[in-house]
Amino acid sequence: MNASPPTPRESSDIRALIDARYADVMAACRAARIPLHDDAGVEERIRRTLLASDFALEVLRRQPGLLAPAGLERLRANGDASTRAATLELPADEEACMAVLRRFRHAEALRIVFRDVNGLDDIDDTLSSTSALYEALLELALRWSESAMHARFGRPRDPAGVAQRMVVLGFGKLGGNELNFSSDIDLVLAYASAGQTDGARPLDNNEYFIREARQLVRLLAEPTVDGICARVDLRLRPFGQAGRLALPFAAMEQYYQREGRDWERYAWIKARPVAGDRVAGRELQDMLRPFVYRRYLDYTAFAGLREMKALIDAEVARKDLAGNLKLGPGGIREIEFVVQLTQMIRGGRDPALRVRGLLPALQACEARGYIPAARAKLLRSAYIFLRRLENRVQMLRDAQTHDIPDDPLCRERLALGLGYDTWESLAAQLTTHRDAVSAEFAAVLVPEAGGTATAPAADTALWLAAREETLTAETMEASGFVPGADVADELTKLPRAAAVRSMSARSSERLERLMPQLIRAARDSVAPAASLLRLLRLVQAVARRSSYLALLDEQPNARRRVASVFADNAFLAERVIAQPLLLDDVLDPRIDQLPLKRADISAEIARTLGALDERDPERELERINEFRSSIAFRLGLAFNDGRADAPATARRLAGLAEAVIGAILALATRELAAQHGRLPGEGSGFAVLGYGSLGGEELGFASDLDLVFVYDGKRANAMSDGPRPVDGTRWYQRLAQRVMHWLGVQTHAGKLYDVDTRLRPDGSKGLLVASVDAFEAYQRDRAWTWEHQALLRARPVAGDARLGGLLAGIRRDILGTPRDPGRVRAEVSAMRARWRAERDRSDAARLDLKQGPGALIDIEFILQGMVLAHASAHPAILDTPASSSLIDVLREVGLFTEAQADTLHVAHADLLQMGLACTLDLRSRIATRTEALDALCAGVQQVAVDLGFNFAGRADGAAPLGVDA
């Protein structure tokens, strides 16, 4: 609610006008014997209302009773029209009914003007109150129409005999709950299914609802001595003015699947049920959601909205509407286009954007990071200003106009009513907002001339030569693509590829425009030939997917970014080629707003799955896969660009894997419970332990997952409560198998992870899932030293929190058992020497970054050996499985010197950095030896020797771990 606006200085003409109008109203009150008491500044508020609105003057002249005590209470009341409509009684006579509806509308519209101009409501309240008024009128008119129709023909029913009501869908400003004061109302009318009425004179449902629609429109829109209730526009229905007034749901669905156009998608973004059967209306919306919000990111929306804007601009020019607040440059429609473009592109994958109303949608786009905060602030400020001014223009005479009047006196009234001293000061503010909106609109809809940019003639000539099969290696090399033979060959093959030959005319046109631009972008990269070869593979992969071609065509930044990534990052390039959906991540404005914590990632997965129209395992698994690929890809970009270092990247990849395992476990549990029911007891009684790089939070981009599954043995013999009950042992075995399968199964979006379960008790010979007791017994009595080394990096990553805590306690007890430090060092050294002999790929010129002397595995074994030898005396070193943190803890308890800790820290970070870089370049983790690298590894080897480890010795097998009492 606004404070009452200050009254700017009035001119003598304005003062005389208001005085005369106020005198007219007072005379009408006296004639009707309406007492008017000037309490709480009533006179001043009435004068402000008369300044702002000729319509208000006419209403008060006709209905002075609105200023009686009860009427003033109505003007001051916070509740919208729906509360008063609920008690409104409509007479059975049609003419009398129309009169009651119109007078009700006049009274409520006066209330809206009164509250707006006196600062009792802000613009949001005013627009929503107007929307509520027309919803109430629609419901009143529909119920009267239904009553009249039922009396003649009975109730319409479907073939099963279920009664039906019309569904009234509001579009545009009404659908967005932001209706203008004098707007028409855009409606689409529908009904659930075919059938007929149950009266003495039965009608087919089609004919019934058409007649009811006509009756509804007549009640609202037919002029009478009291004017009209509402201007009703039904042209948004299927087939427009040529279509039937009301259609069954099946016909609606068929139309939009076959005939639906971009502008209709745009219109449906704001659609909502506003009267009639609202439940059925929401079902229709769910049915049509795939038409409105596409499954994939839809960059073809750029072209569709650009065409719509061109038509609007042509109308603006033809009708000289440059000053039109809605359609003119920098007007309301341009703000709507910016926001709804984002909704159309991303709403299919991000349900948070499926909101109606400009301001809520803008807020959602800003909150999700799709519209920058500065742009959102500018658009919000301009929108509020323009809508307030537009509303006041319409309040002047209750006219459906978006043009500022030419009359100087009306302009002065507008300025004074909005708190400006002069029209010139308001006009200056208007110009500022419109110029800002125009600039933002141009930047969004045509970024850097995207879609219209002209490529250099030389690059166009290269593409033409490729099409004509005259392109040579020498020509490509002269153009900067060295070596040129493969590039010339692949570029020549592209126009003849089956996917390209079968493209639609529109896509072919887009490709002709795009290819020279891609050639240019590749030339500007650090590796032109490699970049272009990968780009050509990408074009073939997306040739039948117009949305991805549109992204590259429309977004110059995307072209440059993709070419750059493809030039120096083979791993990420292959991911994009295999999953073109990742193209969006190259351009995603939220690239610096990654969900980095497991809880945030889990929430994002839940949000992603919530966007699915159907919750079946295959679709959910595919969406989880797409989500994982997207986050991993963005982490790869951040690492590649130097925005994240190796330890942070590895830790975040591990957090991503944890969240994915949790989602897959939840999905597997749900599906298993549907078949077999659930086991008794609190929690699931099932936990997943992550070992290795997952447990140690050092996951790579292509790492597999070392997992161990453990269950609560107390439930082994319990029976599940489903239609096909099984005992606990089988239930948990099937759960583990399902998790394993879904983590590793190939989908359209690839597969999630390779999974290794050989670290479970008894390795590959043991059961896939072990009870807690069996797990503990094995670790205490039969585990080898290397298995306890592995246990150091184990931690619960998914499942029952209580069971996970129990397992963490068992791990702590076992690793904290007193051991002979000398024997630990000997056994750890023997195992390391054995691994090095079997797995090290180093030679005189190259170093294996993982298995080589002084490399990452040496660091891991140093840390594991120190923990096993000293955990009984220093239990704090068991609190973290991550190498980087563990180095700090060992230093804090005095087991490392400052120099040793610093050496290991630097080596660990640098080796991890080099290893991740190798993965991203699709190279083995083997690096060319340099003085710096050799010095780094020599430092690690020296730390190992100083601490008593001999990793270079010969290994003759590892013995079972001895435990000192």
Fold and architecture overview:
The C terminus is likely disordered. The longest helix has 31 residues. This protein has 41 helices and 14 strands. The termini are far apart. The protein has 965 residues and is mainly α. β9, α33 and β10 form a beta-alpha-beta unit. Strands 2, 3, 5, 6 and 7 form a five-stranded mixed sheet that branches. Helix content is 59%, strand content 6%.
Catalogue the unreliable spans.
954-965
* Global outline: elongated
Helix content: 55-70%
Tally the helices: what do you get?
41
Give the end-to-end Cα distance, rounded to a whole number of Å: 76 Å
Number of E-type strands: 14
List the helices and strands and how they pair.
Elements: H1 12-31, H2 42-52, H3 54-62, H4 69-76, H5 81-85, H6 94-117, H7 123-153, E1 156-157, E2 167-170, H8 172-175, E3 185-191, E4 196-197, H9 205-221, E5 232-233, E6 246-248, H10 249-258, H11 262-268, E7 272-276, H12 278-292, H13 301-319, H14 332-346, H15 358-367, H16 373-397, H17 408-417, H18 423-445, H19 457-467, H20 473-478, H21 485-493, H22 498-501, H23 505-523, H24 528-542, H25 546-554, H26 556-568, H27 570-578, H28 583-587, H29 598-610, H30 617-640, H31 646-676, E8 686-691, H32 692-695, E9 705-711, H33 728-744, E10 755-756, E11 769-771, H34 772-781, H35 785-792, E12 795-799, H36 801-815, H37 821-839, E13 846-848, H38 856-870, H39 883-892, H40 898-920, E14 926-928, H41 931-946
Parallel strand pairs: 3-5, 3-6, 9-10, 9-11
Antiparallel strand pairs: 1-4, 2-3, 2-7, 8-9, 8-12, 13-14
